[in-house]
Amino acid sequence: MCLTLGNAAAVHEHRTRATHRGGYTETLHHVGHLAPGDLWRPVDGLPPHVVTNIRSRENSVTITDQLGQVHRYATNAIVPTAVPDPLVLRPVALPRSA
Predict the structure, then answer these.
(1) Which phi-psi region, left, alpha or beta, contains residue 17 (left: φ > 0; alpha: ψ -120 to 50)?
(2) Hey, is 54 helix, strand or coil?
């Protein structure tokens, strides 16, 4: 499942250009909504990490980020996430011929 503002348990503050990818909105999502490639905030106040792996076992879900850090949550947990701003391509100014 893809993280969106529409399927968030809560929508918090928007951060402009907080990452090299651009801005994002701080959100909370059910842990079952996360998938590899999603943005997740394991430490409040710091830029989000990219989810690289998710494993579900009995009553827990283990999330691994791009740094290899592993965090475990209950299967019914609401976790801090981030929804990136849409990619907006800026028009390129072409040189005019004389």
Answers:
(1) left
(2) strand
